[in-house]
Amino acid sequence: MTNVLNNIIKSQKGRSRTATLEDVAQAAGLSPMTVSRALNNPKVVRPATIARVMEAVNSTGYIPNMLAGGLATSRTKLIAVVVPQINNNMFVDTVQAISDQLAVRGYHMLLCIVGYEPEDETDIVSTLLSRRPDGIVLTGIHHTSELKRIILNANIPVVEIWDLTPTPIDMLIGFSHEKVGNAIGEYFATRGFTNFGFICASDRRAMVRKNGAISVLRTIPEHDIKEVIVSRPANMEVGRHALRQLLDSGHHFDAIICSSDTLAQGAIMEAEAQGLRVPDDFSVIGFADLNFAAHNRPAITTVSVDKWDLGIRAADMLADKIEGIAVAEPIVDMGYRLVIRESA
Amino acid sequence: MTNVLNNIIKSQKGRSRTATLEDVAQAAGLSPMTVSRALNNPKVVRPATIARVMEAVNSTGYIPNMLAGGLATSRTKLIAVVVPQINNNMFVDTVQAISDQLAVRGYHMLLCIVGYEPEDETDIVSTLLSRRPDGIVLTGIHHTSELKRIILNANIPVVEIWDLTPTPIDMLIGFSHEKVGNAIGEYFATRGFTNFGFICASDRRAMVRKNGAISVLRTIPEHDIKEVIVSRPANMEVGRHALRQLLDSGHHFDAIICSSDTLAQGAIMEAEAQGLRVPDDFSVIGFADLNFAAHNRPAITTVSVDKWDLGIRAADMLADKIEGIAVAEPIVDMGYRLVIRESA
DNA sequence: TTGTAGGCGTTATCAT
DNA sequence: ATGATAACGCCTACAA
Lengths: 344, 344
Prior knowledge:
- Chains A, B: Keywords: DNA-binding, Transcription, Transcription regulation.
- Chains A, B: It comes from Rahnella woolbedingensis.
- Chains A, B: InterPro entries: HTH_LacI, LacI/GalR-like_sensor, Lambda_DNA-bd_dom_sf, Peripla_BP_I.
- Chains A, B: GO terms for molecular function: DNA-binding transcription factor activity; transcription cis-regulatory region binding.
- 2 copies of one chain form a homodimer.
- Helix content of chain A is about 45%, strand content about 15%.
- With about 350 residues, the first copy, chain A, is an alpha/beta fold.
- Chain A folds into 3 domains: about 20-70, lambda repressor-like DNA-binding domains (434 Repressor (Amino-terminal Domain)), CATH 1.10.260; about 80-175 and about 310-335, Rossmann fold, CATH 3.40.50; about 175-305, 3-Layer(aba) Sandwich (Rossmann fold).
- Chain A has a 6-stranded parallel β-sheet with strand order 2-1-3-4-5-11, sandwiched between helices. Chain A has a 4-stranded parallel β-sheet with strand order 7-6-8-9, sandwiched between helices. A two-stranded antiparallel sheet of chain A has the order 10-12.
- Chains A and B meet through helix 5, helix 6, strand 2, helix 7 and helix 8 of A and helix 5, helix 6, strand 2, helix 7 and helix 8 of B.
- The first copy, chain A, binds a DNA duplex (16 and 16 nucleotides) through helix 3 and helix 5.
């Protein structure tokens, strides 16, 4: 049984040690190289030999050492994933999708949560690279030139996600935040709205969406625009507070444009707490189509992006490139969908 | 400059290769061992030498290879974290807290999202161990005996989180789901409620909370209890649907007990959609004190656990044990707090 | 304070 | 189909 042989291994050196290929080879009466082949390239090994190896693997409790394997092959089956946050609902679906699909493809995920500062990202990615990941996922397209230099030097596939540019570091899958903003602006502009309140998180992409909307809204004669920029995290409480600020400003609003559904949900809550009705007194629009948006009361009008599919495809793009499979579309625009529900 | 030396490295072998300690040593006119010491144990190296090393590191663009380092030292500065899900709001704070604190302590996080099946967990942890992590975080206390055997054999520190038992694999930080359930039951029992509807996710811990509540509620004379077990994911939509099922059953309810705030929020939404008022027509209680619970309308009565602190402390327990610092409390009961707000 | 030799566990490569 | 040898890049242990 397992324990018997484990004990032998332990007693040889006088203390605990995990089984190695050598141990398995000894148990099977084979060379380490043959065991390695039986495990990694079974089709060149005789079936009977494979059986012997498997038995020895079980009896020794052998677990391969991927540090040694990676060192020898320069392939680690490791993907580093870098995101600014996961507890704001925005990226968590994408991260879980990436994780799931990487697992399907036989990779592990090294997850790093770095916040929104490009300098922090640079330092952290640098240490991440010391794990020699086979590929890396970065959120967004704004990185320090130092970071780009480091990554290029490491010479591994990269996928940037959640934004769009014609000049990614390597591969890219995302959508245009500016166009999302434009679409929101046009929705209101073509419906005769004139007075707008923005509740916008202070991160760069949220700002781009906001400015995209504003650039359209400015074309409306006699428009009025009032902004509240909120510090992260953009949770429901912050949304409620921001709406209060807008209402206290004395402006009148036709529509409140929020940089996320969470803020929108908060704004709606606060409106109703103050005896106002959405969309009767004013409209509210969010972003991201988070899982509660469709089921809120009122259901939240928003811009939807396929966060899950984005993650799946990002993982596949990386795995494909790593494995030498040509990536047909190295730059993917996922697009977005304006989803009109009750709140606007 | 960087590129010059990088090019030298490249041309030596005719193709791209990342700089090694050897390259840095050559550039600095030192031995690899001295470079290694300058980087990892600077206090035993002359300051002038360190300066030379740093210059060479910069000029070569050297990034240490932790595969090689880990192989040599058997320490990887890697922690494997295993959770069932992250996109249900329950674990995401804890995971982010673990990630943050591990970063502070100089560790990277290998994150694995395994679902709720113990067998899947076993296989996945087994492959995870091939990375030779310095420690591992497991969610919950129910694992296959095979898993326990494998982990014990690997001989690394383990922290189980988010549950409580006197007999953890190694260390543990969490809380008693049964007692959480008891507390909920007592809250209603002492207030004269008699008719209960449960909306409960089908995972094991949610069930334990439910049964903990029921065991108390059964002591109420003429109680009536009706359950709906919902399939994952336990999102707002599912909560709405489940409440509809309860109402359609024709039972009358004083209180709806939900296994998460998300389900509770859905139940409240659905109630109001049907013209019912919470808590006037019936009370609703959730679990976890998710970030929206306090700011919902009505604010959601719930049981709060300090998810963030739990993660911080789990990371510290692991790092301490790995680094030979005695862990004063290897079994930590985080407790819970019944937070009475408006919905119940 | 710095350098040398050897080994960590695996796989590529070249035999047999 | 299987085996022997030499890396992979770093660090421990010992030597100078």
